[in-house]
Write a structure and sequence with these properties.
Blueprint lengths: L4 E2 L5 E2 L4 E6 L15 E7 L8 H11 L2 E6 L5 H20 L12 H21 L6
Antiparallel strand pairs: 1-2, 3-4, 4-5
Length: about 140
């Protein structure tokens, strides 16, 4: 499986840049005597990557930090957890690289203005009715 990890249409990270660590999975083991290291941790060092441009490195580091980690221990097999960890890492990096849509300034509509003003009138009337009556 030497295919690069495809982040989006423009970015693909070689698997050689992703460090894979295996360890014992947490949780109850039951009577499983042959203990396996099925928990997989995929670690990607953003700053040392050759696949990313400087702008992409800056964006990912600002949102996720200099080292991005994804952990999987859902499945019993190490191979399946490896696939899950890589998919989670891919999703994190894709979300970090996505540019937010610029906000377009809008004005409140006529109905919204009228609702606001009528609410202010009701509040004013309520407070006026709470006052002590004037002495004549």
């Amino acid at each position: 499986m030497d295919d690069p990890l495809r982040i989006d249409a423009d970015v693909a990270i070689p698997l050689a840049e992703i460090e894979m660590r295996a360890s014992r999975s947490s949780g109850p083991g039951g009577q499983h005597a042959n203990v396996t290291a099925s928990r997989i941790e995929a670690v990607f060092d953003v700053n040392s990557s050759a696949a990313l441009g400087e702008d992409q490195k800056r964006r990912i580091s600002r949102r996720l930090g200099p080292r991005v980690t994804a952990v999987a221990q859902d499945a019993r097999s190490q191979a399946r957890n490896r696939e899950l960890a890589l998919a989670r890492l891919q999703a994190k990096l894709a979300a970090a690289l996505k540019r937010p849509k610029p906000r377009r300034a809008t004005k409140p509509g006529r109905a919204a203005k009228e609702r606001r003003l009528s609410a202010k009138r009701r509040a004013s009337e309520r407070k006026r009715l709470r006052q002590r009556p004037a002495d004549d």
